[in-house]
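Review form for a predicted model. The reviewer records the input and the model, then writes brief findings.
Reviewer: anonymous (R2)
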Amino acid sequence: MTLLAPKTAEPVEQAAPPKRSTLARRLVPYGYLSPTLILIVVLMVVPIVMVISYSFRDNVIVQDNSVFAGLANYTKVLTDPDFLAALKNTAVFITVSMAAHLVLGLTFAMMLNTQLLSGVTKAVFRIVYILPWLFTIAVVAVIWRMLLDPSGVVNYVLHTLGLINEGVNWLGDPGKALWAVTFINIWSGYPFFMISLLAGLQGIPNDLYEAAAVDGTNWFQRFLHVTLPQLRPVIISMAVLDLIWTSQQFALIWMTTGGGPLNTTEMLSTYTYKQAFSEYEFATASAAAVLVLLITMVLAFFYVRSQRER
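Model under review:
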């Protein structure tokens, strides 16, 4: 007698939910991005396009009927002695600032990363070193204008130490003004380098230092062959970013010297501002702004390239 196996109920096929069309699924991410894209287009792309168009025309904004001028505005800017002086001052300003930021930031970062100091001492030093970065650039400008005044604290200290005989007008002397504003920019900007390099130092494995010590290397050799190669990506990224930010510095220069005296502290940013809102030469200012944009794009290209290599 054979036993018949009970019949199993066949599964009921459920209707598959309707699939979204391929086009709709592809448009969903752009729907989420659309508010940001609209803001970028309205606040960045459109103004850039307008400025570029202004640079090829004459009598823009101030007159209704502007005329096409071709490259005349660029020729005028590139042959302007004030623009060439601003370009030279900007090159000195950003180069010295970036080098000093790197040296000071790395020095203080290594000091805070050492094992020779206690935790409390490191915490106190971190607060002291990061203070310049907490002030807004307007506060920094006002403070240093008071400190560097001929009757200010800096001259008083130097006179007390016997280093000067009379008060020096640091921001009003054509031979000292550029170096004075560069020093202020260095003082206010090195904490960002210090924090970034400190994070990089804390990410270096101790095994590398122990292996180098076993090989008989001294502290300088370990710094040269272990620390610097490990910090190379951070140093390159920070250097390029600092060049971009410093080249666009405006508020500090405008609130301390205004580009003077005798254009010795004139920067590309202050030159462009004066052309637009002091001389009302908006076409010339647009051409100068486009040149600054090109310089910034070159620096940004190297920054993106370093990030991809990293």
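Findings: The two ends are 78 Å apart (CA to CA).
Further findings: Residues 80-134+189-309 form a domain with the MetI-like fold fold (CATH 1.10.3720.10).
Recommendation: see findings above.
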